[in-house]
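ESCALATION

Customer reports they have been waiting on this structure for their group meeting. Please prioritize. Original submission:
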Amino acid sequence: MTETASRPTLEAVAARAGVSRATVSRVVNGGDGVREPLVERVRRAVEELGYVPNQAARSLVTKRHDAIAVVIAEPETRVFADPFFALQLRGISKELTAHDNQLVLLLTEGRDDHTRVARYLAGGHVDGALVFSLHLDDPLPGLIQGAGVPTVFGGRPGWSDGTRDVVYVDSDNRGGAREAVRLLAGLGRTRIAHITGPLDQTSAADRLDGYREVVGEDDPRLVVESDFTPGGAERAMRELLDRCPDLDAVFAANDLAASGALRVLRDRGRRVPEDVAVVGFDDMLPVAEQSDPPLTTVRQDIEEMGRIMARLLLRRLDRRVAEEAPGGVVLPTTLVRRASA
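Update from on-call: job pushed to the front of the queue and completed.
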């Protein structure tokens, strides 16, 4: 038989450090008013004994749960199939882990899930929320505001009523799109098509605006709305070729859409880039580098976007930091040349 070691207690830490139980409690639970030499003695005792603070007790003192909800307004079939979400989650996770916070992932399969998510957030389980992939008619922002949870959004919010204190992180979608289309125009392409993302999302709408700023009065035959997926882009590319067989360039709203467009062009016997040049958006390396041919695309730092979202939220939650926060952080994009254009 083996005797299981008992879990170290506050009293044991206090005895090892030579201080009172109340002093240990203030140190391990984040309280103030303890002199630095005593803090160091308590920390050494905690490490030597392997003491693990009781989270419930800690929360009573700090009013924090050290947990952040990440709300993605997409079904799980989309989230786990699109590398964009993995990259953004990786950035968020790295930043939260560095500050000893847990990530709680919440997905919305449909409208019935919105009330569930809002109820969970209002229930005091997490300190704040990071929310992205919103659609214009999504009720989540209003529900989250009603729950009173500090929030940072991924992507420029689609509302403009001026009644909400909104902090968000986005990329320069319009500027990146302009750069992509200018490249195609500079290559002498005159019939430049655009496969959009879902236009009820601001990122897709901004990329369409950037495309139009370069082509001017666009030919309606050369723009087809899609959904940021390879399958949706395949359907859009077939429609474009049926409408305008002599098109000579395609700007796809993301890399997955560009990969779908490349497959259809190959099936239809169009050479890339000789007959049709193709540019994507994102620079997700598993997609862009392994495309045939490798994809010219607009790079946005997706992982860094996640890191900054988490960093801004943690700063808002830190009572030692002023509540003022930037309304929006917009990261620059860069064009990455490969073989498709």
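Sent to customer with the following note: The first strand starts at residue 67 and ends at 72.
Escalation resolved.
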